């Protein structure tokens, strides 16, 4: 279940949703909220996104991308 981005927790793997050109999209990699912003949980790089919603990242999400 998607939750409002204002309630996103810090330092845990989350799946983010963003809206591009009026269409919602799910990011296909886990992200972590940090004091500096959002980072890709797989490589630690900051991600330039403005997410609108989040949900828990499930381990099976990573496995299904392989």
Number of strands: 6
Please give the domain count: 1
Radius of gyration: 11 Å
N- and C-termini, Cα separation = 24 Å
The total count of helices amounts to: 1
Largest sheet: 4 strands, antiparallel
Mean pLDDT across the residues is: 90
Placed side by side, the strands forming the largest sheet appear as 1-6-2-3
- Report the principal-axis shape: globular
Quaternary organisation: single chain
Please report which band the strand proportion falls in: under 5%, 5-15%, 15-25%, 25-35%, 35-45% or over 45%. Answer: 35-45%
Structural class from helices and strands?
Answer: mainly beta
Parts with pLDDT < 50 across at least 5 consecutive residues: none
Element pattern in H and E:
EEEEEEH
């Amino acid at each position: 279940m998607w939750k409002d981005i204002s309630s996103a927790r810090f330092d845990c793997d989350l799946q983010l949703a963003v809206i591009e050109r009026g269409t919602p999209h799910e990011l296909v990699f886990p992200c972590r909220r940090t004091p500096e912003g959002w980072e890709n949980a797989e490589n630690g790089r900051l991600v330039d996104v403005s997410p609108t919603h989040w949900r828990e990242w499930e381990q099976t999400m990573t496995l299904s991308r392989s």
